[in-house]
Amino acid sequence: MPAAADNPRNLLTSLILVFPLFLIYQVGILFTLPVLNGVDFVTTLLFRTFGLTLTGYLGFLGGVLVLFLVTVMALGRRQRFNGAVVIPVILESVVWALTMGSLIVFVMTRMLGISPRLAGGIEGQGLLTRFVMSLGAGVYEESVFRLGLLSGLALVLEKVVRVARWAALLGALVLSSALFSAMHHLPPYGDPLAISPFVFRVLAGIFFGLLFWRRGFAVAVYTHAFYDIFVLVIK
Questions:
Q1: Coil, strand or helix: which one is 67?
Q2: What pLDDT sits at residue 180?
Q3: CA angle, residues 5, 181, 136, in degrees to nearest 5
Q4: Which of 33, 84, 189, 228 is at a distance of 20 to 30 A from 198, taking alpha carbons?
């Protein structure tokens, strides 16, 4: 079986590589509440709607672990985990994370004539909170907008609407990226709507989407997480 870095359809390898980030995020939010990732609907529902206790939350994590093991076992019937790609995936993701910002700035300034400026809103958060937020963005936003929305829209456009495969992929890429950007402007915690941060995040969504489609889910997740760590924690 080809490695995850060479075969983006090897979901088994990608899920195993991403699961540690998910666990670190889920444990980390215990120390950073009430801050949660904007698309972490499950944890938000558990804490803010149901007032989940620590014991109940640990039980929830145990259930997630069981579900993960069942999924891995099911995928293991058709795919094989390739542990040799762990370091290559991480190194590749670091390179993409360091490259993405400069590429987007180039497109915005030289091709679109838009000043690249992201909105604020994190100045009052500590380093731990920013780190946990970065991991949550990598895991949850890539799961929702790339693994779920991009893949789902491409499938619907190709199989139901009956458009050409390339057109389905392009349409799904643009639409999922626009929704990804719009999510960051939703009240009450979203940034004020402005053209520069909106376009920047649309282009970032396209970048992550291309990585997901060509390099796999794990590379997209780690690139997203590393980029946010570089911007929110280290820079």
A1: helix
A2: 95
A3: 55
A4: 33
Angle of helix 217-229 versus helix 195-215 axis, rounded to 10: 140
* Residue 234, pLDDT score: 81
Q: What pLDDT was estimated at residue 182?
A: 93
Compute CA distances 233 → 22, 30, 72, 83, 129, whole Å: 18, 19, 32, 29, 9
Instruction: Answer yes or no: is 6 within a domain.
Output: no
- How far apart are the C-alpha atoms of 202 and 90, rounded to whole Å? 24
| DSSP alpha helix (H) spans, 107-194 | 127-136, 151-155, 165-183
In a domain, 21, yes or no: yes
H or E stretch at 14: helix 11-28
90 falls within a domain = yes
d(CA 158, CA 1): 27
Q: State the chain's maximal CA–CA distance in angstroms.
A: 53
- Stated pTM of the model: 0.90
Return the structure tokens found at 127. Answer: 């380093």
Total structural domains in the chain?
Answer: 1
Q: What is the mean pLDDT of each run of 10 residues along the chain (235 residues)?
A: 50 93 91 76 76 82 92 91 91 96 94 78 76 92 95 96 96 97 81 90 97 95 96 82
- 222: containing domain: 11-234
Q: What is the pLDDT of residue 119?
A: 56
Distance set, CA 63 to CA 36, 57, 68, 179 (Å): 20, 10, 9, 30
In 10 A of CB 125, how many CB atoms?
Answer: 15
